[in-house]
């Protein structure tokens, strides 16, 4: 999901109990999450009708048909509830441990297990084609939309037009609106059925429109990339997104480890932190071979030696635990740039396996 950047945890390596800010909308993918920005004064907004006229010109210039533009934007009114949600996104302070425990309840894990078994026939060929295990697909499906139960009820075009007009991230949401119009123009879904979150994330995979165009799949071959109701398309779209972001089915996402008594801060400082990517990425150390972590005193959670494989890993201090994470963990952060989310998906997929 090129995706807008969401709020990442404020975790710092070496602090076990440091609280992180987790958005109550964390279940949305990073494409639907956007960093807080200064509120645009209401009087700086142009009249909505004038703004729509400009949007129409931009959409037609971008190749959307005039018929689709008119059908989608004529007579549209702003959704003030969307503006209110955007300006007052509630936050709750949770440690990563608290977040993971609240998400991965017995009932939720049991539901995920049941869904994985129920949809094994659909998941197996998708896992084979895209190289992403069914357990990971189901874990993301559950985290994003509670296995399709909660996909959002806001009209996507109206919500995105409102957010573009509101002005705090006009370029971002204008681009997403034009992408949504392209989806309609291609006939992938009808206007009345295109619904999602207040921020424009759509369907059971919770893709933003630009991510939909880049990664959504028509796995059942009916000519539509239906991430709203068709589960093979939902599963294949999630798998394709992860595959495009580097997921490899011959690797794990990470493992819990024990660190030396000196602590994670000293250990991480000796290796160094990443310097680019989303905030969560920059909270990871650079990736170094397992042999180096072994030499630095890192051991498996059970106290044994690390695997003798030539593979690089980064150190993550998450709540009360430490992990060595691999390339697949980066793919999870690509879906939603927050350690709480990525860890919850990884741990849930492990339990399903």
Give a written overview of the molecule:
- Residues 1-40 have low confidence and may be disordered.
- This protein has a five-stranded antiparallel sheet. Strands 1-2 form a two-stranded antiparallel ribbon. A two-stranded antiparallel ribbon has the order 3-4.
- Helix 3 crosses helix 8 (156-166), helix 7 packs across helix 11 (231-244) and helix 11 (231-244) packs across helix 15.
- It has 16 helices and nine strands.
- The chain is α+β, with helices and mostly antiparallel strands and 353 residues long.
- The radius of gyration is 21 Å and the shape is globular.
Q: What's the SSE blueprint?
A:
Layout: E1 20-23, H1 48-61, H2 66-73, H3 80-87, E2 91-94, H4 96-103, H5 106-118, H6 120-130, H7 134-145, E3 154-155, H8 156-166, H9 170-185, E4 195-196, H10 209-215, H11 231-244, E5 254-258, H12 264-271, H13 279-282, E6 288-289, H14 290-295, E7 299-300, E8 312-318, E9 321-325, H15 327-335, H16 339-352
Antiparallel strand pairs: 1-2, 3-4, 5-7, 5-9, 6-8, 8-9
Helix pairs in contact: 1-2, 3-8, 4-16, 5-7, 6-11, 7-11, 7-16, 8-9, 9-10, 10-11, 11-15, 15-16
- How would you sum up the major sheet? 5 strands, antiparallel
Mean pLDDT: 87
> Could you give the count of β-strands?
9
- What share of residues is helical? 40-55%
Span between N and C termini?
26 Å
| Order of helical and strand elements | EHHHEHHHHEHHEHHEHHEHEEEHH
Structural class: alpha+beta
Sheet-strand content, in percent, reads 5-15%
Task: Note poorly predicted spans.
Answer: 1-40
Strand order, sheet with most strands: 6-8-9-5-7
How many helices in DSSP terms?
16
